[in-house]
Amino acid sequence: MSIQGDQGVNTVDQQRSRQAMNNNNGEQAMPVLLKPPEDFEPRVTVMRWKTVLSVFLLVVLYLILGATVFKELEQPHETSQKLAILVEKLEFLEQHRCVNSTDLEYLVKQVVSALRAGVNPSGNSSNQSSLWDLSNSFFFAGTVITTIGFGNIAPHTEGGRIFCIIYALLGIPLFGFLLAGVGDQLGTIFGKAISKVEGMIDKWNVSQTKIRVISTVLFILFGCLLFVTLPAVIFKHIEGWSALESIYFVVITLTTIGFGDFVAGGSELEYLDYYKPLVWFWILIGLAYFAAVLSMIGDWFRVISKKTKEEVGEFRAHAAEWTANVSAEFKETRRRLSVDIYDKFQRAASIKRKLSAEIYLSPPVNQQMTPGKRAHSVNLGDEREAYSYTS
């Protein structure tokens, strides 16, 4: 009984020892492949349809939220602008009775068409700087391959539009390759700087997590100062924008949104010929910086996801081990209880059989009496029968 109990208790330990022997014994265990075979194909994790649907619903809700906020913020301003232009038209017609409403509407349409073509209709001089000189054309080509597309100028000829299509299809991948290279170089430079900062902070006896957080925050602050704040100050000084308008233009540009409501070099000021090319090179470095930041954030998410998976795996392993131990102990306890109950029943049955055997083997009571006691017992029996008969 004790041997069986020990075997039941040590079931899990024996399984672990067998696994350890299989892992340590080269002859019994499967060979470990240090290099994947030639026909090995890496497993690609595909997002499940439920996850895709959940993310899609989240994006739709985010769009609805943004649409609601923009509607509440911008629609009243649009209504006031419509009312203001209507009042201006009525006042103009009232002051200039020689102009009818039809001629005024025709003039307004011509002005709108000129603005859409990128021509500023203000002023009386026809010697304004061209929107398609070499500097502006260089800046436009840069907005094409960077996919910013401010929209303040665009080709209006068939030849220009056909060339723009071909130019974009070839230039966008080329610029993406350049952007990746510049981003890697910036990442290397900032990585070395971060390592030096971490080495300095490490002397303060701070945990590695806090060191990484501090160095990352410094990296982001320095990048924002160099690629966002400083250019915003320069644009505010050159373009005459407010601080909010300058920061708005910088962020909208470096995120490649490019609404076109604010464009560097788009006002009536006199700019240097190399101003717009310098703006484009700033866009290149700024996009590379943002790409490096997004890549670093993506690496963090991958590391966090990997650690989470490892922790979940360890938790599952501990849970499986605990379940196996509890199951083994439960089986052993149940076996011991069944054995104890069986022993008690066997002992009770044995006692019962012994008592039955003793009762069966013992002689009758009349045989154990002496002749005198037996005669007295017979007389008593006759008297009882006679008494019962008379009564």
Automatic annotation (TrEMBL):
Q: Topology with regard to the membrane?
A: Multi-pass membrane protein
Which sequence ranges are marked TM in the entry? 52-70, 137-155, 162-182, 213-235, 247-267, 279-301
What region holds the Potassium channel domain?
128-185, 224-302
Q: Which domain of life is it from?
A: Eukaryota
Q: Which reaction does it catalyse?
A: K(+)(in) = K(+)(out); Cs(+)(in) = Cs(+)(out); Rb(+)(in) = Rb(+)(out)
- One of the GO biological process terms: stabilization of membrane potential
Q: Name one Pfam family in it.
A: Ion_trans_2
* An annotated GO cellular component: plasma membrane
What name is this protein filed under? Potassium channel domain-containing protein
Which subcellular locations apply to this protein? Answer: Cell membrane
**Family label:** Belongs to the two pore domain potassium channel (TC 1.A.1.8) family.
**InterPro entries membership:** 2pore_dom_K_chnl, 2pore_dom_K_chnl_TREK, K_chnl_dom
Q: Name one GO molecular function term.
A: outward rectifier potassium channel activity
User: Which keywords annotate this record?
Assistant: Cell membrane, Disulfide bond, Ion channel, Ion transport, Membrane, Potassium, Transmembrane, Transmembrane helix, Transport
- Record keywords: DNA-binding included? no
Q: Does the keyword Membrane apply?
A: yes
